């Protein structure tokens, strides 16, 4: 005898298909809500900010006159911050990831570090701001300068870069490591010649994405003393600075409503930067995607 | 076990036991491996034959929970001695794996990887090594015009011979092969088998195989492993024609495994 009654299956078929259609509709609707707000945001920013966005805006300092306010100090300041944050985090982050993945024994200590790294990646950025303020500005007495801001940002993105580098290193097939060890290579030779070359695209992609998160951060920089109104560009890491999000934030605090448009222009600039960084990450990922 | 034909033993394994954590995988193995011969290791899946092979170049220690007792003497020195470096052992005892595992680099870079690691930088020397190793692996004619192409563009059988050439490039004394043809088609398998015959003139070869016909075709001695024990070890002809142990007979006549 058969266990499945084809008549009953037929009778239920219509209901099953309807439920499938409803489920699809619901999920599409959920997606639509997100898309709607994204579009609304983009529309408002663009219509408000595009009129103000010109060469003068990109090359001028901020001003009490919304017509003349520019974001140059923010752009240059953000770049200086990245010059500090980028190398520090990539070097420290990759080194940590290599240690944890290749050298550390899988024991309680490693698991403890691992869990805390993941927790650190979720700590609110303002907490890192407080930490930076205490350590870099007060204890080490660096002052309210690029170096303090950059190092604070480095603390913020370090856990993220460690975790993403670990994933990249882990994705290198073990068979390649074994082939190298079997020829008498040391661990370090294997890491340098086999593991890192294969992991570098993933490491770079993760690093750029984390840095693009850092470039939009405001709260920690406010704490470690980025200036809101500054009329000189930093010429070194020991100079006072501002950053794009700080500049935008300070414009939104102005009583003159015309500054809202200036802030929108600033947001467009920062979005362009983010898009650029993310596209570089995508290009790297596609160019070097899986060769094994 | 005594040597009948006065050849030297490259490996003398004495009372070798091995555990993965609490599970014992090898029991009291005693076995001499003779130079310039092909020694085949056969047995059903999970009998410890791969584990045993990987113990000979201490690759098995990449699994952190492994413990061993007993001795393995390679050319007279115990490879488990604290002062014996695994790196040095592995330059003498090369290995070819079950799955071809070339590096995602050019054919040329694959071959020179080992020599470079051991400090050879001279371009001309490296060129010679590449030619000699590829010829040794019977691959030179097939790839000499595309040495700088990625090794991943080669067929599975060619990739496996690249791995053999890569192993030859470190000029080893012994070559360990862990089911080197199990991922290959019959023609590539034949090529690798012929190659093994050629290689034993210069190297000592230990080969793990699932395939009894292969063991019978290419080896001088055969060891039969079962449940982590060395059941029988003798000349290949003897083992396959007149096995001494009932379990060996059952296995080679296909009654289990």
From TrEMBL, chain A:
Concerning SUPFAM superfamilies, the annotation shows: MetI-like (SSF161098)
GO molecular function ontology, one term from the record: phosphate transmembrane transporter activity
InterPro entries per record: MetI-like (IPR000515), MetI-like_sf (IPR035906), Phosphate_PstA (IPR005672)
Q: Which UniProt keywords apply?
A: Cell membrane, Membrane, Transmembrane, Transmembrane helix, Transport
GO BP term (any one): phosphate ion transmembrane transport
The UniProt record lists the ABC transmembrane type-1 domain at 75-280
What is the similarity comment for this entry? Belongs to the binding-protein-dependent transport system permease family. CysTW subfamily.
Q: What is this protein called?
A: Phosphate transport system permease protein PstA
What organism does the record attribute this protein to? Pontibacillus litoralis JSM 072002
TrEMBL record, chain B:
**Keyword annotations of the record:** ATP-binding, Cell membrane, Membrane, Nucleotide-binding, Phosphate transport, Translocase, Transport
Instruction: Name a GO molecular-function annotation.
Output: ATP hydrolysis activity
The ABC transporter domain covers which part of the protein? 11-252
- In which compartments does the protein localize? Cell inner membrane
Transmembrane regions: none
Q: Which GO terms describe its biological process?
A: phosphate ion transmembrane transport
What membrane topology is given?
A: Peripheral membrane protein
Q: Which SUPFAM superfamilies match?
A: P-loop containing nucleoside triphosphate hydrolases
Keyword Membrane applies: yes
Q: Which domain of life is it from?
A: Bacteria
Q: Which InterPro entries does this entry report, sorted A to Z? A: AAA+_ATPase, ABC_transporter-like_ATP-bd, ABC_transporter-like_CS, P-loop_NTPase, PstB-like
One GO CC annotation? plasma membrane
* Function, as annotated: Part of the ABC transporter complex PstSACB involved in phosphate import. Responsible for energy coupling to the transport system.
- What protein does this entry describe? Phosphate ABC transporter ATP-binding protein
């Amino acid at each position: 005898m058969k266990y499945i009654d084809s008549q009953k299956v037929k009778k239920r078929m219509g209901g099953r298909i309807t439920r499938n259609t409803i489920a699809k509709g619901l999920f599409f609707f959920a997606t639509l809500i997100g898309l709607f707000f994204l579009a609304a945001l983009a529309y408002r920013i663009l219509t408000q900010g595009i009129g103000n966005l010109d060469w003068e805006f990109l090359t001028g300092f901020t001003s009490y006159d919304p017509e003349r306010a520019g974001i140059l100090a923010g752009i240059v300041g953000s770049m200086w911050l990245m010059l500090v944050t980028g190398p520090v985090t990539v070097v420290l982050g990759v080194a940590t990831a290599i240690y944890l993945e290749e050298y550390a024994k899988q024991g309680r200590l490693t698991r403890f570090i691992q869990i805390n790294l993941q927790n650190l990646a979720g700590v609110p950025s303002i907490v890192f701001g407080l930490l930076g303020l205490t350590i870099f500005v007060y204890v080490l007495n660096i002052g309210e300068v690029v170096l303090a801001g950059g190092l604070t940002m480095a603390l913020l993105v370090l856990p993220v870069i460690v975790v993403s580098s670990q994933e990249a290193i882990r994705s290198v097939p073990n068979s390649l490591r074994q082939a190298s060890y079997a020829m008498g290579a040391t661990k370090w030779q294997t890491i340098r010649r086999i593991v890192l070359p294969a992991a570098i695209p993933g490491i770079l992609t993760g690093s750029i994405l984390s840095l693009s998160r850092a470039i939009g951060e405001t709260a920690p920089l406010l704490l470690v003393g980025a200036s809101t109104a500054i009329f000189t560009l930093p010429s070194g890491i020991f100079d006072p600075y501002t950053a794009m999000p700080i500049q935008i934030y300070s414009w939104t605090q102005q009583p003159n409503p015309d500054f809202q448009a200036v802030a929108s222009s600033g947001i467009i600039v920062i979005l362009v930067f983010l898009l650029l960084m993310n596209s570089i990450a995508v290009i790297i990922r596609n160019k070097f995607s899986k060769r094994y | 076990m005594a040597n009948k034909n006065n050849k030297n033993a490259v490996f003398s394994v004495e009372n070798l036991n091995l555990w993965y954590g609490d599970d014992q995988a090898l029991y009291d193995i005693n076995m001499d491996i003779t130079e310039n011969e092909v020694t085949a290791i056969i047995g059903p899946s999970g009998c410890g034959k791969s584990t045993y092979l990987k113990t000979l170049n201490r690759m098995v220690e990449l699994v952190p929970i492994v413990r061993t007792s007993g001795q393995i003497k390679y050319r007279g020195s115990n490879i488990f001695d604290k002062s014996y470096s695994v790196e040095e052992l592995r330059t003498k005892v090369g290995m070819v794996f079950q799955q071809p595992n070339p590096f995602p680099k050019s054919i040329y870079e694959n071959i020179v990887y080992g020599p470079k690691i051991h400090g050879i930088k001279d371009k001309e020397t490296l060129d010679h090594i590449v030619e000699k190793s590829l010829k040794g692996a019977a691959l030179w004619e097939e790839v000499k015009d595309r040495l700088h192409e990625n090794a991943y563009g080669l067929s599975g059988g060619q990739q496996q011979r690249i791995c053999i050439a890569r192993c030859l490039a470190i000029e080893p004394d012994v070559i360990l092969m862990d089911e080197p043809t199990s991922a290959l088609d019959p023609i590539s398998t034949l090529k690798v088998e012929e190659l093994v015959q050629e290689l034993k003139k210069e190297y000592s070869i230990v080969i793990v195989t699932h395939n009894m016909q292969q063991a019978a075709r290419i080896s001088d001695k055969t060891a039969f492993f079962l449940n982590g024990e060395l059941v029988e070890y003798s000349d290949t002809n003897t083992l396959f024609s007149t096995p001494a142990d009932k379990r060996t007979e059952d296995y080679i006549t296909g009654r289990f495994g």
